[in-house]
# Entry
Amino acid sequence: MHPIIEAARQAVDQAELYWNRAHSISVRYENYRLQQVTENDVSETSLRVIKDGKIGSAYAVFPDQEGFLDNAVIGSKYGDPVQYSFADAADYPALDSYDASAANLTSADLIGMCEDIKTKIQSKLPDVALGIGAGLEATELSVQTTRGADAASKSTNVGYYFGAPFKGAGIGVYKFASGVRTPAIDDALINEFVEWYNWGNATSTPSTGRLPVILAPEAAFLMMMPFLSGVRGEAIWKKTSPLTERLGEQILSEKITIRENPTLAGSTDARAFDDEGIPCAPSTLVDRGVLKDFLFDLRFGAAMDRPSTGNGFKRTMFGSGNETATNPWFCCPTVDPGDTPWQDMIKGLDEGLLITNGMGFHSGNYPQGQFAVQAVGFHIVNGQVVGRLDKTMISGNIYEDCKKIAALSSEVGPCSGFLPIGTAPYIMIDSLQVAGK
# Structure
């Protein structure tokens, strides 16, 4: 145990030490030219204490910073009463989350990745304003408590991205890949980027009304973020969630199964324990459309007389970090695939939309399952993509519109956006409200 935990035993009733250390390198290209290389080493730590039934917190760069414990104790005098205890000793699942060769990559290695991508794309799209980037993050995280929790992990995250805005537009096509180990430069991903970019050479505005909509994996957050808001323990406790009294009910299409998959193999966001030192474990939140469970951290689990589900993370939609309060949050959400090739979905539509993103999502009433966004993606007519969407809005309510799912693709891709990286298929919704012509 760190010495500050031993010191805390003499000063407070309970204490929890969170310490995150990260080494990162990033490389960025613009217009096929190297623009920036950065390298950082970061340490951040937080200390929570419970004294006389009240909680206090302090933040520092290193745990041995002078006055760290004293500041947390002082904070507890003015803190909120708490009805829970910090994490106990536990066994944690073993994860394949660290690769020594990845941790030892240099900026020259990352530049080499970008040059490889540049070579493969420049011959196909020489005139686009291509952006390329590559990065490495090697992290050491530990959570210790006076109740015996002693969680520690090492992880590596190596990834690259590339993309370009459409000419004369503020939107474009962007692709990425990441892994615990250095991911190969995926020719299929590059070919998909080129195909999608060429689709966007023309613009098209769909009809106004209800139309079939295909959510690409990178746009699955339009369904998943409202769902997350609905299953978070805080919203359940406050009774602001539309799912508060609906355990065991059909809330989505029977084609939809959603899992919380924190130990997801290959995900750079996989975790053996949450930011409170509670073990993470896979669970099924929606089974063939039926709501099965909620997500809890220590605070809201205690308020609902439930144990933490290992979902206490220092995250919100708009940020994360050492000074962010823990909240019930996804780790690696996944949507089970179906059996339809995603390109067959397109071929079967008289008119519809393929959505790759949605602008303005954060300002919608997503806690109640609703979204209304500027649609980013492509217009489909007679089974063919005819151009990128122009002057198009889509809106819906997942608890109404996602009860009618036409198909799920057999292929899956990264589901991220505002979320930790999980996976999702292409999701074909029978219809959403579209504002176009």
About this structure: The chain is about 20% helix and 40% strand. Residues 202-437 form one domain.
